[in-house]
Amino acid sequence: MAACHGSPVTKQRRFPTKFMFGAATSAYQIEGAWDVDGKGESIWDRMTHMSPGFIEDKSNGDIAADSYHNYKRDVQMLREMSLDTYRFSISWPRILPTGMPNDINPAGIAFYKNFINELLKYKITPMVTLYHWDLPQKLQELGGFANPLISDWFADYARIVFQNFGDRVKHFITFNEPRETCIVSNMFSSFNGSAGPEPFNKSTNIVNYLCAKHLAVANAKAYHIYDKEFRATQKGQCGITVSVDWYGAHTNSPEDKNAAELKRQGEWGIFANPIFSTDGGFPKELSDRIAKKSAQQGYTKSRLPEFTEEEKALVKGSADFLGVNHYTGFLVSATVNKLENHVPSLADDIDVGLIVPQEWPKSGADWLTLTPNSLYNILHQLKAKYNNPVFYITENGWPTTAEFNLNDDDRITYYRAALENVLDALDDGVNLKGYMAWSLMDNFEWLGGYTQRFGLYYIDFQDPARTRIPKKSAFVYKHIVNNRYLDHTYQPESMTMTIDPGH
Ligand code: GBH
């Protein structure tokens, strides 16, 4: 019956039945067991042990959420929330302690097999990231992502992952957030593999761009291995995850609009363009600008190493989907809040200013606000720019500060706003297949240590048992997932979790 006589009947917007709902984590942030059962040292083990001062509370991931020993409880939490997908990462040095394929750690393989089997037992789809920043220390000592051989080391590791887990894992993600590996790591002294722990943190402005190229080639080699050696039998997909914050123009002036576009090219275009654009290669305006600046600075070649034609072709199209990690947004200006120190860097190459309006709600981390419609805006932009590839939101979430608080209404507000944007994007024809909340549980927040909490489940990191307790947001997320629509008024009746039939 059609709505009539002014009755307020509106069509309830629903998430498609096949739309994947899940949660995400990464190995170093949750596993602990940093030196257990033959695991090798990672750059994060080295850095947190050698230079604890880099971490806000001088903590580390030695134990973290101890998921190495609590993985069955983690799977139970996914079941409690009726989630159908779990995005987690494999620790490269747990599989290959030295990073190299001659020495495979059987206990590492066994751990992930048991864990994946536990997920499959309850029909939860594993979405596996191969690299979420925990590079084997031994590879860092060979230059990490500054060494072009990283692409062969990564390809060897990827083949071992596909061989061992590809019969049961159908969604692989090569890299989590190249920008953070290549660019951000160097702005915050040293982490994630491109410059690495001191004393390897040198020449960041050069390393940044070497890393951008080498990582793109590494992704491509792993993708083609999957495509040629495994796809026919394993029938899965292999994609990459890029961090995409929203950058809008501060005013409607052509200068600000262009500044925003340049910022987008420098933030995510530099990583997505070589793979997803029809032309391939780095974004044109950005690479022209870096070449020009490099010449002015006295370099004989651009600091951004161009791809050879062969590499360009190898990289172009080397992903089955674009994973998007999205958290926040900024306004971009050609004139306001500009850099004061002009040393060669990506920031100087782009040379724009950022503005965060006062009225955008603030979170427990100073870089993250609730930016209106940011998730819709980026999906809309990415769809237009890259001809609507398959997308997954592979991370999205809201941090609170360290205090104990299960009534996380601000997180609920954030998730509801984001999921409203997901519905808008689906209406808009964005080829979006799933949404992973960051994070399943509180965990080691990199340089923030344990001072920021992103979890749907709370963990007291002083508690040796690392007991997991659902926050209110876990109940609200579950309600959305079960009902496939957004109820903005739902409140859980109690804070006791049960597992619904069929999960
Ligand atoms: C993601 O990075 C990561 O994939 C995930 O592991 C992480 O836990 C999650 O987001 C939440 O941060 O504190 O001012 O030094 C998102 C991109 C880049 C955002 C580094 C925070 C540090 C800013 N992150 N950035 S600051």
Outline type: globular
Q: How many angstroms separate the termini? A: 35 Å
**SS content category:** alpha/beta
What count of helical segments does DSSP give? Answer: 16
Rounded average pLDDT? 94
**Helical content (DSSP H or I, runs of 4+):** 25-40%
User: Rg, please?
Assistant: 22 Å
CATH architecture term of the domain at 20-244 and 365-483: Alpha-Beta Barrel
CATH class of the domain at 20-244 and 365-483, named: Alpha Beta
Q: pLDDT below 50 for ≥5 consecutive residues: which ranges?
A: 1-7, 187-202
What is the total tally of β strands? Answer: 15
Q: Give the ligands present.
A: ligand GBH
Annotated CATH topology of the domain at 20-244 and 365-483: TIM Barrel
* Biggest pleated sheet: 8 strands, parallel, barrel
Share in β-strands: 5-15%
Task: Let me know the CATH homologous superfamily of the domain at 20-244 and 365-483.
Answer: Glycosidases
Strand order in the sheet with the most strands: 1-2-3-4-5-7-10-12
